[in-house]
Amino acid sequence: MNKRILRWGLLLLVLVWGVSYVFIQNSIQTKTVGIQPFENFPQESIDSVKQSISSLYKFQVVVLPQQNLPKDCFINVKSPRYRADKLLKYLKSNRPDSIDLMLGLTTKDISTTKKDKDGNVKKPKSKYEDWGIFGLGYRPGNAAMVSTFRLRKPGLTIERLQKVVTHEIGHNLGLKHCSQNKNCIMDDAAESIKTIDAAGRFLCDYCSRKVNVQHASE
Ligand SMILES: [Zn+2]
Ligand SMILES: [Zn+2]
Q1: How far is the CA of 136 from the centre of ligand 1 (A)?
Q2: pTM for the whole structure
């Protein structure tokens, strides 16, 4: 009798272990990011972006062949720029089936229209209608666009680029700006490069849990 209970008990234990194993495996997000470099984006920067995505999110990264920036995204209101919102649409519609998230990289200036919480163009309109930005990503979504144009500073450009990229991918994964931890990569970049330089390179515990990413403490 006791042996029978033991046997059933063991069987149950194995079953519970098996079910939880499958559950845990499924909850770990394994996604593939496709880097789309535009107009001879430097290889060294591509490599460092690739490395930061795989170390922070543990995603696979594929580098797609370089392309020219689509001409219909060009605008010249204040200065020559490419509209980031249009570039996101372009990336989204050119996403191969094997890729979950598209990440466009350019050295050219990119812009978007900054709106207030009611959805109107922020005032002064002349300033915010075509607003130069570091990066833009859908939240949630499958495309992000980052430019090094406003990140350039000797010795700092690559670190800034890695931070902006992992921030925009965080938005793609559904993360909002983070007020839990000032060192979190999802801290609001506001309108200043200072915030980016002050932010850490990692997701805080709260954001990590939200996207099922193991907290990287190194
Ligand atoms: Zn953001
Ligand atoms: Zn956070």
Answers
A1: 7
A2: 0.85
